[in-house]
Amino acid sequence: MAITGADRLMQATSFHGNLPLVRRLEAVGFRAWPAASVVYDGSWQVRLTGGHPSKRLNCVVPLDPSDYHDAEVRIEKARKRFEHYGRPLVVRETPLAPQPLLGRLAQSGWEPFETVQVMTADLTVLELPDTLDHIPSHDVGRFIDVLLAVQGDDLSLKPALAEILTAIRPATGFFTSEHATDGPLAAALCVQDNDLAGILSFAVLEGRRRQGIGTEILSAALRWARISGARSSWLQVNADNAAALALYRKLGFRNAYHYRYWRQKDSTV
Question: Where is the N-acetyltransferase domain positioned along the sequence (predicted)?
Fold first, then answer.
């Protein structure tokens, strides 16, 4: 039986698995959630966004397992850059991170503090509704209003989120669910990058979870992506979010790899 590109996306199941897959998903992830400032120190990507505290937008991401020379000097250089932005230094460890670098971080008083699971699904075989219950919008402002309301986030984040979302270059679909009297119920962002579709900023109002709303809006986003030409989908979810993991697995997502963040033990991240 022939192995399709979508099949290959499902083959990486361990932390040190399919590095080409990791590189591709990291690349589309960067494009799907762009930082305001991106500079490179060798193969280390230094991402900073002054207006938004997201760790994914404010971290150092080593992208070559062999690139760990002058690590102490480069870490200190990054620290100064983060201080200029008023941010604590955070390192994001993926399977592409050099193991000697992680060893040096541990010896220098750093510690991992959050693990995120990256999952993929083959859209060519996923069972999805025949019709779209939710039509994607291109109204960035409205989407942000719904997302902030559903997540209970500070409204002051709206300008930064607007800057991030308008900076996304691949095709985007903003999906929202609202009730006439109850207001915003759910939100999901789908970013289609060639044959890959990423699900980001997915949230369901706390009091309306486990009622099928999340499945409904995610299914609509995935069907839109498939109609638009995507063959595979990916997403990122905190490894301790059991409810979300169960929902994604039910929909057909499987583990691809995980990453985690590192900070110094006295950091306030």
Answer: 130-269
CATH of the domain at 179: 3.40.630.30
pLDDT tens for 18-71 read 899 999 999 999 999 999 999 999 999 999 999 999 999 999 999 999 999 999
CA distance 186 to 258: 26
Task: Encode pLDDT of 174-197 as tens digits.
Answer: 999 999 888 999 999 999 999 999
Whether 155 is in a domain gets the answer yes
At residue 188, φ and ψ (nearest 5 deg) are: -155, 140
Residue 121 to residue 6: CA distance in whole angstroms: 8
130 against 10, higher pLDDT: 130
Q: How far apart are CA 7 and CA 3, in angstroms?
A: 6
Structural domain boundaries, residue 204? 125-230
Q: How many residues does the chain have?
A: 269
Nearest-angstrom CA–CA distance, 56 and 190: 17
